[in-house]
Structures are given as C-alpha cells and as structure tokens.
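Q: Could you predict the 3D structure of SAM-dependent methyltransferase?
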Amino acid sequence: MTSTLVRRRRPHPSSSHTADPGTRTRDWAEIQERMLVPLYEAVYERLDVGAGTRLLGLGCGSGLALLMAAARGAAVCGTDTDPSRLELARKRLAAAGGPRGADTPPARLGLGHPDPAWAREAAEAAADARATAGFTVVTAFEPLPALGTAPGAAMAAAVSALTAATALTERGGAVVLAGWGPPERCATSSALRVGARLADPMCAPDRWRPCGRDDLERLAEHAGLRPDGSGRVACPFGYADMDSAVRGLLSSGLFDAAERATDPAQVAKEIAEALHPHQRADGTVWMPNVFRYLIARV
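A: Sure. Here are the predicted structure tokens for SAM-dependent methyltransferase:
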C-alpha cells in the first residue's frame, strides 16, 4: 500500500519574494530568526547578561537577540549589513521599550560593520555613570560557516568586523562566536548542501560550508582573542509547512549565491526536495540541529 505521505503532492514554492527585501525581512523575522532562541538563551544565561551588561550585537538582524538581552536589563547596541533588517530592529526595539532602568539608554543601531567613531559613541552611550565607556559583551550569533579557515576576503572581513567591535570592549569582556555543529548532527545540512552545490560554479565565498571542529577558535585567534570556554546548544528548525520552511531558509541569506548562480525558482524547488524527508505526516517540517558557540576574552 503506497504511503499517502510519499504520494502527497509537494508544493512548488515560489522564491519571487527573495527579490523583495521587505518580504524577505518579514520572512526572517516571522519564520527563521526564532530558530536560534535556544542559542541566545544559553549564552545569556552562561554570561549572566542583565543589568550592568553593555552588549553589542554584530549581525543583529531584525533585533530578536537584542530584545531578549534588553528584557534581561542589558543596555544594547547592534549593527547589521542589511538595511531592511536593521530598520525593523529599530522599530521593534522602540516599540518594546522594556524593563530598562531610568539610566539605561535606548538601543543604538548602525548599518554595516562598526567603525571606530560609531563604536566609541555607542560604547559611551551604553556605559553607566560608574563605568568606563566600553562594551562588556559582544555577540556574533549569526552562524559563521567555516570562516575560521576561509581564505581571502571572507576571513579578512570576519576578522575586521571582530577587531572593530572589540576595539572599545572592556579588557576581559566576552566575545561570543557561533557556528553550525557537526553536519551529522544538523539535519538542515541536507538543504544547505543544495545551496553550496548550486553556487559552486561561482566559487562564492558566502555559500555554506560545514564547520570544522576548531573553526571558531581559529577565528578568535586571528582576531587576537583568547578562548575561554565553549558549548553546544540544540536548535531544532521547525516549520508549519513546506512553504514556510523554504521561505524561512531562503531568508537566511545562505542561498543567495545559489540564486545568483542559477534560477531562484530552481533553488526553491531543490530546497523543497531536500526537506521532504523531514516533513511529517501532518505537513510540518522538523529538523534537529546542534549549534556551537565559543566565548573568547578581549
């Protein structure tokens, strides 16, 4: 007897939304960003982020991690290279308000990597009256796929961003780097390999690669940081249906090189095919994943 799940007609997701930054940003904020909440929570708990913490989020996206830190009482700042995501983060932080103390400043957000002038201004704004101006925690939660061993521009860009961010971080301050866990423990790897394969003709530096065991440590070393502990966190990716899964993954940016090298519709079709083994009988998509984080010190 043929399984109804096998015979179910799979949706043919459209990726036309990827050409619209606003739609793509909403997909990120409404579908994909929350998948890393267990990572944010684990790091904040381990570092005891709260009142007195002055936090800078690199690649802050649409601001969910910053919102969570602010809810714990931290003063937050953030940067991102995507203007649409950054604008949404600004609106969300302004609307949320949160349990900030009377002396806690509003969040400061900057486009691109933090240059020294912006970092100095943001750090001074985040400092309370009794503290020297400087961040106490810097986070790079957006997974860094194999940048610890990536040659050329990718490695240089990662080191440059970290160097700029930590230049005004207090001595002994924590810098958190995050990356994918071993491919065999990340069910999403099957979909991410689709993007890597389709982007291969471009030799694109931003396509996904599996992380090596010591990649985060190598990146920290290149940035002049001292490793001070690490951890692994389960971050399952769960979606209401196949269309949401495809839209969420496309919003991550990990398939941009594949879309440039081929046809966006083809990329979406092949992602859906890779996700099919992870689709349950009720239509939901569930993929267990493990993420790794490294805490380094300035």
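Q: Anything worth pointing out?
A: Residues 55 and 96 are 17 Å apart (CA to CA).
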